[in-house]
Amino acid sequence: MKHTLKFISSLSLLFSMFLGYAQDVPEISKNLKDTIATKKPKTETVKTAKPEIQEAQAPIDSVIKTDRYGLRVGVDLYKLTRGLYDKDYKGVEFVGDWRLTKKYFLAAELGYEDKTTEDDRLTSSANGTYIKAGFDYNFYQNWLDMENLITIGMRGGFSSFAQELHSYKIYNPNPYWGELPPIATDNKYSGLTATWIEVALGLKAQVVKNVFVGFGVQLKLLTSNKEPNNFENLYIPGFNRTYDGSFGIGFNYTVSYFIPIYKKKTMASETVKKEEPKKKK
């Protein structure tokens, strides 16, 4: 009997322990599931930066241009042909320029004039040579492969000449018996000189390859004038008439030929802002 009670008591204790373990298993499973669920790795969404609109400067027009440098020589057609219709004039003028830079040119004129001046009171003639030298600035913007010029420049002029007085009349304030006849003379004055400065405006256009036709106007200011005794220089070769004061004016009509010596290549490019297209999300 005693052994039976002991067996029953042990069996009851074992059963109660089994029931307690059976109740704990669901809770452990539940807790384990919750732990696993909470420890699942989170998926983070990485936001990529939107591409910004980039601005760049891209050349749209890039042209390699070849500039020619050399000597241009020619002649003044006005002085050369004036002697055909003016019996009191003979003259010739040679012109030339050398291209220094893209815009600047060295320029010079060399000439000879023989001019007879007939006034109410006297007749005289002047003949001699002259030279003018200075520079021209071309402010005309040419198109590609064009070499036309619209220039403004300055010159310094020097003339060496002689004067001859052919005849003159004595002024009579009371011409009761009429005008006195002119007095003929052959007075010659040599070794005369004059200097001046001038502003020159001109244009040259290329009519055929290397051949240019041009027109120019000069505004002059006399700076020195060596005159003979008891006589004034009425005409100075290269300057023009002097009895209008210290200021003079001149013009020429030239044809010239360009002799290319060497070339320089320059690049002209224009740039604009280029905007890249927006990317769709």
Textual characterization of the structure:
The protein has 281 residues and is of the alpha+beta class. Helices cover 15% and strands 57% of the residues. The protein has helices spanning 2-38, 77-82, and strands at residues 55-76, 89-99, 104-118, 122-138, 149-168, 183-208, 211-225, 235-236, 240-241, 247-275. Residues 1-5, 18-30, 35-41, 51-56 and 269-276 have low confidence and may be disordered.
Task: Throw out a few tags for this protein.
281 residues; alpha+beta; eight-stranded antiparallel β-barrel; 2 helices; 57% strand; disordered N terminus
Task: Characterize this entry briefly.
By secondary structure, this protein is an alpha+beta fold. It has helices at 2-38, 77-82, and strands at 55-76, 89-99, 104-118, 122-138, 149-168, 183-208, 211-225, 235-236, 240-241, 247-275. Mean pLDDT is 79; it is low at 1-5, 18-30, 35-41, 51-56 and 269-276.
Q: What order do the SSEs take from the amino end to the carboxyl end, as H and E?
A: HEHEEEEEEEEE
Q: In angstroms, what is the radius of gyration?
A: 52 Å
Instruction: Give the biggest beta sheet.
Output: 8 strands, antiparallel, barrel
Number of helices: 2
Low-confidence stretches: 1-5, 18-30, 35-41, 51-56, 269-276
